[in-house]
């Protein structure tokens, strides 16, 4: 028998159960079912947790935050209507449109979206390149210096530029100091791989890199302030980060880019990145 519990903050034992579901789903589906944002919200608070139990076993999970959601069902508990149950519960918890991410855009998720009245409204490409391929030399624009992020000093300047660079990107542009400090506390955080571009005492761009536990590198986020655009700064910062990840021994580097950001997709493809997977967002009006 299935039972659904909704919590503002999952219990520690429930957090462990959700992580176990994600760990089981990843090799089964070939894609991680829950994003970093969702996992941080699950662990530290932020958003609501919908926990689906079947015969006293945690069988599925959904996370809802500001009308955006993700969900996963344990592979051993699928084909029993649990995905549909979680979607229905998410709709009941949402005022206004509900947007749900389908990581990897797997056929089962696409079919479930179509059957429940969801429409595809956005796609996020994951691109990858191997670090063995040579890179162009880094050419830093005149009057600009690139330095590593210094925790305890650079947070305010970075938040300002991040907000300006991603003014039309609600997930990234609305980051708060708490969002930044949470990531600084993560085991993967390395200020040596967090590059800041300064023009005098003004921060005008950044490239934050990440190394995953399996050694895979990531272009975590690249941002250029509107005052720093048009000088090739984004390309220079990207190359600086790629050189750093190669020096760290990462065999390959991944990044995420919105399909609508044609200029960024072209830049990354010019640097040797190719399409790996697609995450799609579906909306129920």
Report on this model:
The chain is of the alpha+beta class. The chain is built from 9 helices and 12 strands. A 12-stranded mixed sheet has the order 1-2-3-4-5-12-6-11-10-9-8-7, sandwiched between helices. The protein is elongated and about 65 Å long. The chain starts with a strand and ends with a strand.
Largest sheet: 12 strands, mixed
Round the Cα radius of gyration to an integer and report it.
Answer: 20 Å
Helix content: 25-40%
Helix-and-strand structural type: alpha+beta
Distance between the termini: 30 Å
Number of strands: 12
Main attributes of the structure:
285 residues, alpha+beta, twelve-stranded mixed sheet, 12 strands, 33% helix, elongated
Helix-strand blueprint:
Layout: E1 2-7, H1 12-29, H2 36-44, E2 48-54, E3 57-65, E4 68-73, H3 82-93, E5 98-102, H4 107-115, E6 119-130, E7 145-148, H5 155-165, H6 170-173, H7 177-184, E8 194-199, E9 202-211, E10 217-224, H8 233-247, E11 252-258, H9 262-270, E12 274-284
Parallel strand pairs: 4-5, 10-11
Antiparallel strand pairs: 1-2, 2-3, 3-4, 5-12, 6-11, 6-12, 7-8, 8-9, 9-10
